[in-house]
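Quick one: sequence plus flavin-adenine dinucleotide SMILES, need structure tokens.
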Amino acid sequence: MKHIELSRRHILGAGAALAATGLAGCAGMGGGGPSIGKVVVVGGGFAGTTAAKYLRMWGGNVDVTLVERGDAFVSCPISNLVLGGHKQMTDITVPYSGLDKHGVKRVKGEVTAIDAQAKRVRLADGTQLPYDRVVVAPGIDFMPEQIGGLQAALDSGQVLHSWKAGPQTVALRKQLTDMADGGVVAVSIPKVPYRCPPGPYERACMIAGYLKTAKPKSKLLVLDANPEIQSKKALFEKAFADHYKGILEYRPNAELKEVAGGGKVAKLEFEDVRADVLNVIPPQRAGDLARTAGLVNINNRWAGVNWLTMESTAVPGVHVLGDATFPAPAMPKSGHMANQHAKVAAAAIIQLLKGEAVNTAPVVMNTCYSFVTARDVVHVASVHQYDAADKTFKAVPGSGGVSAAANQVEGRYALAWAQNIWADMLA
Ligand SMILES: Cc1cc2nc3c(=O)[nH]c(=O)nc-3n(C[C@H](O)[C@H](O)[C@H](O)COP(=O)(O)OP(=O)(O)OC[C@H]3O[C@@H](n4cnc5c(N)ncnc54)[C@H](O)[C@@H]3O)c2cc1C
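Reply:
Sure thing.
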């Protein structure tokens, strides 16, 4: 058994979360003694990496294997700054190797099936991984079939979503830099629920900021399928008016029906919009694996969970985390929340493996920062307490809130938040 070196930061970080989950006093740090069980974690995003690491840190020797298809973690948070030209891909990419020192076994591969009867995870290359409990954190996949012509436009690369950070982020940045001054960019926002409620409006600010300095004759149309801005509304409205007047035009109730004209025409209900760059954020559902594993049991889109353990309400022994879950009331689909789901699950899984009672009063929280310029930032925060009567998390009245105004101090906090959460997951 590999022994783990503890830094001061690890102890502090783990301590805070231990208190939150009720596991204080049983941090085993994964060292010594016989294994208490095998956990396979699928998906190395915000939720999966945190679960894998904390199962080891708190586990008293849990055997943990993380399966991820990608080579490195690429963060959606801060990726809008890459589109704006303020950050590079290297700034939002973190290697998975930081998990090695915690004793997490890593497998690069695609999980194709979960056999809940035999308790085995199957990979595309035929590998089978046995488990006592499995964590499924596949994030989201898209529903392009809801918009005519979208699948073909995405397949051809004419239209990009850039709602999973990686090559799509690079490609959209290139479309923006290749566009002539005087061009039109359109960003289409789907109806809620989607990943990161404020994310599209931050993206609008970053693209408009780029156009303002590099291509001032250009325009950005924000085509929102929703009746109004979905997060930090007054703050985004003020940012649009203060910084991007004459460049950014926001249109509510502008649901995209069809993509045509080689990816250059967005057909809405009553009009066609021509754009040189059309960025479509498609409607979303739980990641494909949640579907194939039979975990999707709400609205044919999301996975229902028991909020005390994050165990699926459809398939026993399978815990679902992050964006793939059907959210509790007022709970956002965010990286921060995915990280919190993971800590609730890690604590509960350890207790279940040990045959102990799980914490009956978990509390989770969320903070989402949005850049409205390269340096000015606004935040929204909330605290969510488990409600035993309704068996769900509920926002604590009076907790959290939003910034009074965009400011540069929060610009520094936002970058620090990103560094800290990436370290919490992967360092
Ligand atoms: C532009 C943008 C900005 C955002 N900004 C913020 C922000 O400021 N703050 C914030 O908190 N959140 C933000 N978010 C939201 C955040 O990115 C998501 O909520 C978060 O990524 C969800 O975490 P997750 O672990 O559920 O999914 P993901 O992070 O997407 O991780 C899922 C992982 O599973 C892997 N995977 C899926 N299926 C398989 C399979 N079958 N086999 C192997 N691997 C698989 C994927 O490769 C991926 O690595 C933003 C999102 C976007 C798009």
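The chain has ten helices and 27 strands. The chain has two domains: 36-141+285-360, 144-282.
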